[in-house]
Design goal:
135 residues, mainly alpha
C-alpha cells in the first residue's frame, strides 16, 4: 500500500471478529489492527479499549500459535496514540482518520522507533507489561 486511499479501501476486520479470535495472519494486518482500535474507541474509553485489545490479541496469538509475538508495550502504545489522534482532530469516518493519519498506517516499526529502542521493545518486560518510551 502506497497511498492514503489504499488504507481507506483496505479490507477491514470487524471488532467482533477480532474479539472472538476469528482472524488469521492473512486477514489481520497492521491496518486492520489500527481500524479495530479506532472502532473500539468510538464507544469505549481508552482503559476499556486497552483491556479489550490486550485480551483479544493474546487470544489471537495463542490460537495462531505465536504467543511470543504479543507485546503489551506495542499494543498499549498504539491504543494511546490512536486515542490521542482521535481527540486531537475529531473525524467522523474511518476514511477521514486513515487519510489524515497515514503515518499510523504505513510503517509501524518506523513509528515505534521514534519512541522506543529495539532493545527496550524486545525486552521480556515489554511483552508482559507496558513500558514507557526511552526516546
Amino acid at each position: 500500500m502506497n497511498t492514503a486511499i489504499d488504507y481507506v479501501k483496505h479490507k477491514l476486520p470487524t471488532v467482533q471478529e477480532f474479539e472472538h479470535g476469528q482472524l488469521t495472519d492473512e486477514n489481520f494486518d497492521h491496518v486492520g489492527h489500527v481500524f479495530v482500535t479506532w472502532k473500539m474507541l468510538e464507544s469505549a474509553s481508552v482503559l476499556e479499549t486497552l483491556q479489550r485489545s490486550s485480551i483479544a490479541l493474546r487470544r489471537l496469538t495463542k490460537r495462531l500459535g505465536v504467543e511470543a509475538k504479543y507485546n503489551e508495550t506495542i499494543t498499549w502504545f498504539f491504543v494511546f496514540l490512536i486515542a490521542e489522534r482521535r481527540l486531537r482532530k475529531a473525524t467522523s469516518t474511518w476514511e477521514q482518520f486513515a487519510t489524515e493519519n497515514a503515518d499510523l498506517m504505513a510503517n509501524s516499526k518506523q513509528l515505534l522507533a521514534k519512541f522506543y529502542s529495539p532493545e527496550k521493545l524486545s525486552n521480556v518486560l515489554a511483552q508482559q507489561q507496558f513500558l514507557m518510551p526511552d526516546r
